[in-house]
């Protein structure tokens, strides 16, 4: 049969694929770790290998990611004020240069 992700499947077996999770190390540092995942219902995902019992995984919720994206986009929009993508339209040394606002 065909492949699915980096894993594979056989008739009657659970499909697996590779993924990266962020595990919390003994020193508290967050480190990326390759795992193999199996069943998922989009709220919970089975990790078939790559983690040990008792390992902690850091999660970043979708709402937080969306909020961070919006903050980034707002900073980009504010930097583009004056039509200059570098936000330098009001710098005195830039006046008179081709393509700079006067």
List the helices and strands and how they pair.
Layout: E1 3-4, E2 7-8, E3 17-24, E4 30-40, E5 45-49, E6 56-58, H1 62-79
Antiparallel strand pairs: 1-2, 3-4, 3-6, 4-5
Explained architecture:
By secondary structure, the protein is of the alpha+beta class. The chain has one domain (3-83). Helices cover 18% and strands 30% of the residues. It contains one helix and six strands. A four-stranded antiparallel beta sheet has the order 5-4-3-6, with no helix packed on it. It is elongated, with a radius of gyration of 23 Å. Residues 1-6 have low confidence and may be disordered.
Determine the fraction of residues in helical runs and give it as a percent range: 10-25%
Uncertain stretches: 1-6
Element-by-element helix/strand order:
EEEEEEH
Radius of gyration: 23 Å
Shape: elongated
**How many domain regions?**
1
Mean pLDDT score, rounded? 75
Protein name: RND efflux pump membrane fusion protein barrel-sandwich domain-containing protein
Biased composition (Low complexity): 87-102
Organism: marine metagenome
Region (Disordered): 76-102
Brief write-up:
The chain has 102 residues and is an alpha+beta fold.
Keywords:
two-stranded antiparallel sheet, disordered N terminus, alpha+beta, 30% strand, 102 residues, 6 strands, RND efflux pump membrane fusion protein barrel-sandwich domain-containing protein, 1 helix, 18% helix, 4-stranded antiparallel β-sheet
């Amino acid at each position: 049969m065909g492949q699915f992700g980096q894993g594979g499947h056989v008739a009657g077996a659970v499909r697996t694929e590779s993924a990266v999770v962020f595990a919390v190390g003994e020193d508290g540092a967050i480190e990326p770790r390759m795992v193999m995942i199996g069943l998922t219902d989009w709220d919970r995902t089975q990790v078939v290998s790559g983690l040990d019992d008792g390992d902690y995984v850091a999660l970043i919720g979708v709402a937080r990611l969306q909020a961070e994206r919006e903050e980034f986009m707002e900073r980009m929009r504010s930097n583009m004020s004056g039509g200059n993508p570098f936000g330098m339209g009001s710098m005195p040394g830039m006046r008179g240069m081709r393509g700079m606002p006067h």
